[in-house]
Amino acid sequence: MYDLIVLGGGPAGYLGAERAAHAGLSTLLFEKKSLGGVCLNEGCIPSKALLNSAKIYEHARDAKKYGVVVPEAKIDQKAVVARRGKVVKTLVSGVGSKMKAAGVTVVMESAVIKGRCDGGFEVEAAGQVYQAKKLLVCVGSSAVVPPIPGVRENLGEFVVTNREVLELPEIPENFVIIGGGVIGLEMAAYYCTAGSHVTVVEMLDHIAGPTDREISTILQKEYAKKGVDFQLGTKVVAVEPGKVVCEKDGKTIEFAADKVLLSIGRRANTQGVGLENIGVEMNRGVIVTDNQGRTNVEGVYAAGDCIGKVMLAHTAYRESEVAVNTMTGKRDTMRYNANPSVIYTHPEVASVGMTEEEAKAAGVEYEVKKLSMRYSGRFVAENEGEDGLCKILVNKAHRNILGVHMIGNSSSEAIWGAAAMIESGLRVADAKEIIFPHPTVSEIIREVIWEFKD
Ligand code: NAI
Hints:
Blueprint: E1 2-7, H1 11-22, E2 27-30, H2 37-42, H3 44-61, H4 77-102, E3 105-107, E4 111-117, E5 120-125, E6 128-137, E7 141-143, E8 159-160, E9 174-178, H5 182-194, E10 197-201, H6 213-225, E11 229-231, E12 234-240, E13 243-248, E14 251-256, E15 259-262, E16 266-268, E17 282-283, E18 286-287, E19 300-302, H7 313-327, E20 341-343, E21 349-353, H8 356-361, E22 366-372, H9 377-382, E23 389-395, E24 401-407, H10 411-423, H11 428-431, H12 443-449
Parallel strand pairs: 1-2, 1-6, 2-3, 6-19, 8-15, 9-10, 9-15, 10-11
Antiparallel strand pairs: 4-5, 5-6, 7-16, 12-13, 13-14, 17-18, 20-21, 21-24, 22-23, 23-24
Helix pairs in contact: 1-4, 1-7, 3-4, 3-5
The structure holds 1,4-dihydronicotinamide adenine dinucleotide.
């Protein structure tokens, strides 16, 4: 009998398995497809490979602005897709090596929880039964496929999800993206730069979901300038060969489409895992956990997208660490107030903590200060003709930092520092004492902090 069986080898699963093995638990990890899960195989990593090609292309195309002569820049889609595959392969094998080094037993099969046994639980995979004292369920999520006529029938070919969109052999001429959330925007960024005419159809009156509204408005304007057609407050009613039919303000409108990306959110993969065989409590398809990663069944833990709190890989890492710490008797708690998020568009968007909208809704009295990214010397030196914003919210009475929201390149690499400030409850006066490296784009955070009174 193993000490722990981990179901799912995505970020929550592989990191949880590694931490558990390092803590001395004999650990077995099941993965049915490929180690690394959605993040590594068809999400975070391959999309960044594509977006980096777009960034390099833009730099080459606009090289003249920087005094560099490039005769002709163009995107070779097949080569971009091939490189993406190479990056994924390298990292997947890296996860395998990590599991081996940690002493985790990996079984590449689909596993189902069968029930309880003396002292633990039984899990079946490929006709074989395995036992463990504890379970960590990290089964992830998949793209929501709505019952819109024409969507399911055309799935995989004409209508694609986060998976296929990363390996299209050709750049579609007319590309319609359903859903203006993170996946929709990142793919709009890549395909519009690569030459598609991109239309983003979004049901809400704004893009980028919970992102600070001032920031998401700037992002929308930037991509509108680059040619993306944003159709907000628009509902898709049907997908037909060559077009997407929508409703807007009571009128029917159609958009020509050679490809359609479905990116309207994700749902937990909790079906067919056997959770019901041991009575794990669920709520609207997600596993109910407390802030220690415990489910209602003693000895059964869950982390990552399948618990449906914040569907981000880095959140999943931390959730599984908390679960493993809890099962090994180390006190730990999951907190979501300093959870950074990034949209890897060009310009990048990076946020952590409360937005103005959230602070208002929660009745928190706050002060806000903001500066153009052009207050950063490094930003000006490296981003010819571009701008951005850094905006910080501070609690009016306590003076602690509540939220940091940035748009502008390199903000993804600076935001963890802001997360550290929020996580440690730093007040304005404390944050002013931090020395930032010069010249870096991160200095914009320091500049904005100095706009506040202590
Ligand atoms: P999302 O939840 O970010 O956005 C979905 C969007 O679709 C929302 O704006 C919603 O209003 C809209 N929508 C829903 N139904 C619609 C309909 N019928 N017609 C038009 N619009 C509709 O979901 P998304 O983009 O699919 O991403 C899934 C998950 O993956 C998210 O949890 C996201 O955080 C994560 N992710 C994170 C990335 C990052 O951190 N950079 C990158 C990619 C994905």
